[in-house]
Amino acid sequence: MIQTQMDPKILSVLADKIQIIQNKQEFIYLVGPIKLPVNLYGETVSFNWYCWLKTKEAEEDYGRIIDKLSAYNLAELQQSSVLVYGDFESSDEALIRMHSICHTGDIFGSKRCDCGFQLKQSMKMIVEQGTGALFYLANHEGRGIGLFSKAMAYILQENGLDTVEANEALGFVDDSRDYSDAIAVLKALRSKPVTLITNNPKKLEALRASGLGVTGRQPLWGDKSEYNEKYLQTKVQRSGHLNDIEDDLHDES
Ligand SMILES: [Zn+2]
């Protein structure tokens, strides 16, 4: 084994917080827990934060992983992470949210979608329930088409296409999101059943197909406005989202 040049004290601090998860032919380095106090609707809430990196190689010498970090150019490739609340490993009940990154909604507070609202609201639901985890999935921008393509899709939407039509016009399938990495991380953190916060049956199926015990689903609708009404209707009418709000939407259309 090639010896790393790292200071052994630094290495031992970090090695305690890294685990390797094998997911089919790939490996996930999971780092955490890291204490993360979060401002949630004006109150400071303490979460435990984990971040992960997927690679094709299993490197058990953590010093060599760390030596290579600067060469990976990670800022050019956004990583996913998870915010954990409460006694996640042992508690009988836990609420899970698989949140797809949304640059415009989560960061800028765009009203064209409901992502920013769903992000904060699901964190609040998890804290109120007492135990849970919010997975923030970095390779899910624009249902998996990427930010630049999403910008083009928005132009098409301004010219009359709906979300599904716009993605398809650009040569993408409507929804190419994959949950296998997040599920592998979830299994590493908890083996007991979970309740999923979602309106999307595909997410429910992905978790169930993975063999995880999913006891149920909690819907998450809200923040409807004139700017995202068509987007929300498309989710129900074309993308198969469960229609908890369909009647409500029709009332105002
Ligand atoms: Zn969004």
What compounds sit in this structure?
zinc ion
SSE arrangement, N to C: HEEEHEEHHEHHHHEHEHH
CATH superfamily of the domain at 35-51 and 78-140 and 177-249: GTP cyclohydrolase II
Strand portion, in percent?
15-25%
| Spatial strand sequence of the major β-sheet | 1-2-3-4-6-5-7-8
The low-confidence runs, each spanning 5 or more residues with pLDDT under 50, are 245-253
The name of the CATH topology of the domain at 35-51 and 78-140 and 177-249 is Rossmann fold
State the separation between the terminal residues, measured CA to CA.
66 Å
CATH class of the domain at 35-51 and 78-140 and 177-249: Alpha Beta
- In the CATH hierarchy, what is the architecture of the domain at 35-51 and 78-140 and 177-249 at level 2? 3-Layer(aba) Sandwich
Mean pLDDT: 86
Structural class category: alpha/beta
Describe this structure in words.
This protein is an alpha/beta fold and 253 residues long. It has a domain at 35-51 and 78-140 and 177-249: GTP cyclohydrolase II (Rossmann fold), CATH 3.40.50. Helices cover 38% and strands 24% of the residues. It contains 11 helices and 8 strands. It has an 8-stranded mixed sheet with strand order 1-2-3-4-6-5-7-8, with helices on both faces. Helix 6 crosses helix 7. Residues 245-253 have low confidence and may be disordered. Bound molecules: zinc ion. Residues 102, 105, 113, 115 line the site of zinc ion (ZN). The site of zinc ion has 4 residues, from loops.
